[in-house]
Amino acid sequence: xxxxxxGQLYICTMTQTNKTGNACCGFDAGGMPFRMLKALCDxxxxxxxxxVASAGRPLTVSETADGMNLDISVVSRHMGALRDSxxxxxxxxxxxxxxxxxxxxxxxxxxxxxxxxxACCPERKKPASSMGKKAK
Length: 136
What we know:
The protein is of the alpha+beta class. The chain has helices spanning 34-40, 43-55, 61-65, 72-84, 103-120; strands at residues 2-3, 8-9, 59-60, 88-93, 96-101. Helix 2 (43-55) crosses helix 4 (72-84).
């Protein structure tokens, strides 16, 4: 989905389950990265993540806010949410806080999600008779 306010591409995933924490097919939602997915639903956070990830080095809050149409306090709050959800690693050096993408953790959570979906909800093959036919 393209957000016209920020001109950034972002993905929003609803993360709801029933009262037992499992979907109807037996999908175990207990290990799902809901906090990470929720943090990425915000277009400003997605833009901040893109900037930090593409920088190639840890960025301070002020470096991240530079060139964005957001107040530095808002950027700081969003970076805190990204840190709390396990997306960013932040280290304080003197008066500055430097943040970088936790690539291994994010990739691991996304791989676990993909594996759980594939195990629970395998792709259904289309009947051979419908393959190659054009819709009328």
